[in-house]
Amino acid sequence: MTEPAPYTEADLSLIKRIIPHRYPFLLIDKVRDIVPNKGAVGIKNVTANEPHFQGHFPEEPIMPGVTIVEAMAQTSAVVVGISLDVIDKPLLTYFMGIDKCKFRRKVVPGDVLELHVTVKRGGGKIWKFEGRGTVNGELAAEAEFTAMMDLQG
């Protein structure tokens, strides 16, 4: 079994060494409180210049719920990357299912979205997570999701 990489947080540079996402679809700025095989907290600084706000909605910009869930998944992929020590290796993550998804409050420009993810099952190719997105401690979204982690090559 591979030892986890020795990181408890990931800045943008390290995130990009773990997951393949890039602008405009890299939806996390930092990951903190990383505990391999257990979970972490992703940070998304929501800004008005993000491309989805041009159409969602021009007069009242709201972060789409699906992008909140995607940000949870990206945070989870960083946890997996640290847990399996696959930094600088081509790890692709594929959604397999999203369950119990609920949206509780709007996420708008100026918010700092915290993405609390917990590993429910993991260790191999298939991982299951529980995620909660909060703003100032207030629940914005929650979901359970399953993903396949595919190390290319």
UniProtKB/TrEMBL annotation:
<comment type="function">
    <text>Involved in unsaturated fatty acids biosynthesis. Catalyzes the dehydration of short chain beta-hydroxyacyl-ACPs and long chain saturated and unsaturated beta-hydroxyacyl-ACPs.</text>
</comment>
<comment type="similarity">
    <text>Belongs to the thioester dehydratase family. FabZ subfamily.</text>
</comment>
<keyword id="KW-0963">Cytoplasm</keyword>
<protein>
    <recommendedName>
        <fullName>3-hydroxyacyl-[acyl-carrier-protein] dehydratase FabZ</fullName>
        <ecNumber>4.2.1.59</ecNumber>
    </recommendedName>
</protein>
<keyword id="KW-0444">Lipid biosynthesis</keyword>
<keyword id="KW-0456">Lyase</keyword>
<dbReference type="InterPro" id="IPR010084">
    <property type="entry name" value="FabZ"/>
</dbReference>
<dbReference type="InterPro" id="IPR029069">
    <property type="entry name" value="HotDog_dom_sf"/>
</dbReference>
<keyword id="KW-0441">Lipid A biosynthesis</keyword>
<feature type="active site">
    <location>
        <position position="56"/>
    </location>
</feature>
<dbReference type="InterPro" id="IPR013114">
    <property type="entry name" value="FabA_FabZ"/>
</dbReference>
<keyword id="KW-0443">Lipid metabolism</keyword>
<dbReference type="Pfam" id="PF07977">
    <property type="entry name" value="FabA"/>
</dbReference>
